[in-house]
Amino acid sequence: MQRQSKKKKEVIVNKIIPFSSVDGPGNRTVIFLQGCNFDCLYCHNPETINICNNCGNCLAVCPKGALTINERDQVSWQEELCIACDKCLEACLRDSSPRVKIMGLEEIIRKVRKLKPFISGITVSGGEATLQTDFLTDLFREVKKLGLSNFLDTNGSVLLEDKPLLLENLDMAMIDFKSFKSAEHRRLTGLDNINVMKNVKFMAKVDKLYEVRTVIVPNLLDNYFNVDQISKLLAGLDSKIRYKLIKYRAMGVRKEKLESISPEQEYMLELVSIAEKNGCQNVVLV
Questions:
Q1: Where do the structural domains in the chain lie, given as residue ranges?
Q2: pTM
Q3: How far is CA 145 from the centre of its chain?
Q4: Which pLDDT value is given to residue 182?
Q5: 20 has a pLDDT exceeding 80
């Protein structure tokens, strides 16, 4: 079943990774929600952008018959038959995935509770998780009752200062700052960066900004300018906020959207040097 549920406490989940050491501090369970309001040219998981429209293009390419059309004319995924070959994702013309689940709040909490002895908290990502703020508010409240921390991985498009109930149980946010230039940001993602800028400043002010990330793409973005300006902004807010510079890698990127190269290590180190000279004390290169 692929349609967005109308129930308040259900959400479309792309996947859940039980254990991750790269999505916030400690060992964390990461929940990826389906649906995003950005269409980044370099998106490496475009199958999370849209909701399946049940066109059925993916059925014929599934080698194990894990995809069928149910009695409601919706694409139905049988996880037990799936071998994760990704042929359905390659066949999709909508930047979506049939391999999603509509999950209720209680179902997710049961999974988290089983993992509790082995994790320090959860991180909710996407797609863009803040498009589901009502669900996140309920989820974070219940996770807090388990004694675990809540982290949010966001593109910064939804103003968090307007979500006080969400913020009550949110420990830290990780925000993508893709470009300091509004026009460049719009060309890259489809939307401007006004709310991104506001979110970075606000979350730093309330001491809930764990990390800001910028992807470095040669021949597409003004990387030197972006790193210079973003690092100056962060250093002025709190020099200890982690600034992560990410090498562009072509894995999963739609070739019809972008063809670029991964930047050389020397180039990346120059950008790290710029950020450090501007006062950022916690610059991470990946």
A1: 10-48+100-285, 59-91
A2: 0.94
A3: 24
A4: 97
A5: yes
